[in-house]
Amino acid sequence: MTTLAELQRNFISDCLSGQLTSTNTLLAKDIDTSLISAPSLMAIYQNSSIGNIIQAMKLTYPVIEKLVGEDFFRASCKEFISAHWPKSANMDDYGVEYADFLASFEPAKQLVYLKDVAQLEWLFHLSSLAGDSIAVDWTCLSTVDADEALEVRLLLAPSVKLINSPFSIGQIWQMNQENSLEYREINLAQKTSLVVFRSGLKTEVMAVTEGEFAFLSSFYQNQSLANAIETSTKIDSHISIDDVIKKYIELNIISGFKTE
Question: In 79-234, at which residue ranges do the beta strands (DSSP E only) sit?
């Protein structure tokens, strides 16, 4: 008798096996085929499973779908799903590998910016799902002397994500938002530094300077304020650290600190 685990594995295999035949449908011996053949029956489940996963991917990658069109997007998703079947029932966890997949997907190889747009959409997705930051009493820093203050490590809010790209992915993303009126020619090969963060219930994508990007990136690497200042001023000697800190605290991008 086929065990439950074997039935589950065979079901998944049949859903992913592409064209089903009488010889490759693994569940054929375990299902009632008196009214419909095993391949035809499993094809119903196969199409339904893949369709549901594609629908989830459309919610995560709406800009990619707009850029390539619905038919192309569905075809790419089918190829992706066959190589990356979901490991969890939570579809919020699914699709992280799609950006890398697009870079190697032969029909999309000429669209070299698609990978970075997909990475931006995945970070937007993660930011939207991230937890809220905890309120911090910034007045505690007033008791820290100057030398100790430079060793402080500023903390980024849980929703904050950073992405650097050699392409103008921020403009591409913005032009493909619902109700966007921004339709204009863009320089595709324009280096872009972006911060993705949540403001209240709304997730934002904001362009920043290279110096600001380096400053914020330092805190992802758990570096001190002194190291962040050194890194960012090497890139932009005119950056105003006081203004940058004030700006990102007000936006709740910098949401806390630690002194150890």
Answer: 153-156, 161-165, 192-199, 202-207
Question: pLDDT band at 145, cuts 50/70/90?
Answer: confident
Does residue 212 belong to any structural domain of this protein?
A: yes
Residue 135 sits in the same domain as residue 106: no
**Which residues are CB-contacts of 232 (< 8 A; sequence separation ≥ 6)?**
211, 212, 214, 215, 218, 239, 241, 244
Q: For residue 226, what is the enclosing H or E element?
A: helix 225-235
Domain closes at, from 111, 139, 154: 111
CA proximity to 219, closest of 198, 249, 250, 243:
249
What proportion of the chain, given as a percentage, has pLDDT over 70?
95
β-strands 254-258, 202-207: how paired? unpaired
Average pLDDT, the chain: 89
Residue type, 165: S
pLDDT digits (tens, 9 = 90+) for 155-201: 999 999 999 999 999 999 999 987 665 556 777 888 999 999 998 88
- Residue 143 shares a structural domain with residue 256: yes
184: domain range? Answer: 123-260
181, 107 Cβ separation under 8 angstroms: no
* Residue closest to 258 by CA, chosen among 127, 138, 161: 138
Q: Note whether 58 and 143 are same-domain residues.
A: no
Contact 153/187 with Cβ under 8 angstroms?
no
Question: Of 111, 141, 174, at which residue does a domain stop?
Answer: 111
pLDDT in tens, 23-78: 888 888 888 887 888 888 888 888 888 899 999 999 999 999 999 999 999 999 99
CB contact at 8 A, 53 and 80: no
